[in-house]
Input
Amino acid sequence: MSMPGVGTEQERPLAQGATMEISVSRQDLLRELTATQSVVERKTTIPILSNFLLEADEDRLTIIATDLDQSIKTSCAAKVKKPGSCTIPARKLYDYIKLLPEGDISIKLMENHWVQIRSGRSNTKMVGMARANFPQVPEFPETSITRIPAASLKGMISKTIFAISNEESRYTLNGALLILKVESMAMVATDGHRLSHVEKTGETLTNVSGEKKTLIPRKALAELQSLLGSGDDAFVEFADDEHTLFFRIGRRVLTTRKLSGQFPNYEAVMPRDNTKFVVVRSQDLMGSIQRVAQFADERSGAIKMRLEQNELKISSSSTDAGESEDTIETPYNFDPIVVGFNSAYMIDFLKAVGSEGEVRLEFKDAQSAGQMRPEDPGEDYKYRYIIMPMRI
Amino acid sequence: MGRIRILSDQVANQIAAGEVVDRPASVVKELLENALDAGATHIRLEVEGGGRKLIRIADNGCGMLRDDALLAFERHATSKIRSSDDLLSIATLGFRGEALPSIASISRLQLDTKTDEESAGTHIEIMGGKIVRVDEAAVARGTTIAVRDLFFNTPARRKFLKSETTELSHVTALVTHYALAHPDKHFELHSATHALLVAPPVRKSSERLYQIFGGDLVDQLLPVAAEMSLEHAGLPEPPPWKRDADYKRPEPGFLRLSGFLSKPELQKLNRNSIYVFVNRRLVRDRVILHAVSEAYRNIMPPTSFPVVLMFLEMPPDEVDVNVHPAKAEVRFRQSGFVHDFVRDSLRNGLIKARPAASFLQALTASPHATSVISGALLPDVSPLPGEEGETRFAAADSEPVLVEDAADFELRPPQPEPETDKLPFSLAGLEVGLEKLTSGLPEAHDCDSQTPIEAGETEAQAPATLNGLASLKPLGQLRESFILAVNEEGLWIIDQHVAHERVLFEKILRERQVERVERQRLLMPMLVDLLPQQMVVFAAIARELERNGFEAEAFGPRTIAIKAAPIGLEGNRLERMLVEVLEQSERETQRENLETVRTRIAASIACHAAIKVNTPLDSKRMEWLLAELAKTDHPTSCPHGRPIALRYAWKDIQRAFQRI
Output
């Protein structure tokens, strides 16, 4: 068997990175790779970032991925024959491990960063890169750790993440603001057209004095969402330093670079005197809006909400598609009002609320912000969705 | 002794000559117009030394009687008008009666003429304005005038003549224009060494165009024709109490336009390629030039100009040609009406044709590229074929379109033989194309698509239109910026940003028209800091901005707060768009009319709200964009004039792979 890499430039291996040999169960490895691989950059100009860093020590294998903005570090049990570390192309490794049958997988670092992967009768060698090139990933701090109930955090993320701005130039809107207080926490996100605000009371948080506000980038929230979805840990450990936010969920650690800048003063835009309101079943409203939106202007998705005597009429029209109207019967006794909204914004909210239960729509006039909220939020959630009207 | 003297006729003529004749080309113009006014159908011109040595023009027109011929060299002697009333309805090209005596006073001139009435012709020789010989001569019907040694007695004028090549190119351009205006007449232009132009009579302008410029240019041009009755646009009639007893209501007449205009991708850096003939007279009229620019507004960049050959016909009393000694300028009685008519006709022509740009042509058609069609519309004027190398600098921007040698110098796929030209798409498509073309052709006669069409005609004639856009199937994106798509006609490359820009632009204008601009109110007003002068501009156009979906108000002396914005504009894009509009308005030195402001704002909104380059699109989104683009009026180019869709024709692909 000819050794791979023979004939290339002679490179003196570093003393501590020269060896690594482990054996790990395919199931464990695949689970951890799945959790990590979403961070790996698909199209990066820095080749090392498309690699996993594998570190073996004592009886654990640690897997690290980073795109410089964020990183995930996770680990699983492994039989470590020779401790050490190596890097392996992330996508290739993940795809390959998925195709292997159940069983133990042995991973062995060879010369010139080649890595041999053997399982049963399968034998593969992949080209890694020098471990020294892999960027330093921040370490979880020792102090000032806040324990946040995982279920609450997950709920808050799913109720706000859709309202985060996609406009990259407005970077302070490219994340959601997490507000931690001693006995409550809240999350708020806006894109300048609508704002989603959720508050969870009845929590007891450690290491929080007064009010702690943290802006979390959308990408990190999405990672958190999937990490929280796959694990069953009751708490998330949260900490931060000058530049970085840290979240530890079980054995996994997500780090993300802090978003700098001032989140807008959201409290000022919360409507106070939206006195005209109507309550409808979430499912009915969703159905009507989806139907009517088919005939809205393709670009704006604008629909009209018309509130009259015991009726909510939802209508749309566009020169291309035609026009459509749905009527929902519901008690309404205030002055009639017509307001235009982007249907996509309303659908986002209704999806977050779910099809169960009722929602309350509160209005002031056609120029002012409308507010939507679940009629019976339950579980100590206070959920408000503010949406600016369109003039149609 | 008094100091003021009456000048002799000789001197007066020489002064007049300064107005009428400033270079050989003006002599050619005057003589050519005389020949055409005389009803000639066969005109032959010879030019030597760029026209300085010799200009000889021979026609088969009506000729002159001996007495008339002599009288013609008196000042203000003309057969074309009799009284000043005739000036109001001039149907001939000339009328001032100044040309012949002026030319005669600064050259050695020979005239041979014969009419049908007299049995013998007349020969006259004039030297610097003095008749030196009058004789009978045996010549055929018509008139031949030979002008030698132009400016021999006016050294000042002679000194300012340009090089031979330049003068010759002016002459050639002039003859070319008249040949274009009169396709039914035979034109020949010869230099001392070779024929510059030979154009036997043809039936249609399009054929004349093909004769002179060849197929390449014709491919780039779209025919246009329109007609409008002046009935409802006429000037008010005199009131009944002022009418004469035998007052007859004047016939309103018609305003007709025919000609050719270039596809938007053919762009020039100046207006020199816009040729306008009013009642077959070449004019440079600002009203019409403006109308042409207006027609191409938002299809072509404002600094570029199209190629246009346009023939306007109107009753003679609708236009005053007695404005300029060389008759280069005219005045319309109803200039606003003519302006709008020209603008709308050209615009409709462009909308109807929806020309598709070919990929290869687009490479050469930009105003900075040199190619057969991008130079001035001039045949080659190199005096000697062998001297091409050193004379090319003079005609640097006029690539050769030699009539007798139509071979291209460009590296491009060879043009197919007209006869073997098989169109790759179905016959149905071909017929549609032909129908479209012939219906738009000037002087088009009903052309049954069943009858065989001459090969020469079919060649250029299945114009590439963008009607196929709707049938395009997107394949994918090139660098997430250009959509690649195919249909039967070939491979298309579509710039996704400008395509969307065009779609939005027309949509925004439509919505603005009916005041249905949708706007999204902002949760938090967006504050934009402006410079003091921008604040002034903002105040001036705030109303129009508001109707386009911006709700903004002053927020302190140098800040505005935007409270609502048009759909699709957020954050930075919104701010950049606003600043762009304000800067453009600032630059406009002239007061713009409202419509200009409106289209400018629409173009700016469209540009900033459109899909950017480097944006991945899924196939559904691409299909949607192509379908929307197909629905637009001008899918050819974006509001700033860049091309949207380029086609790599199936034919070209086959040829490039040497399949045909």
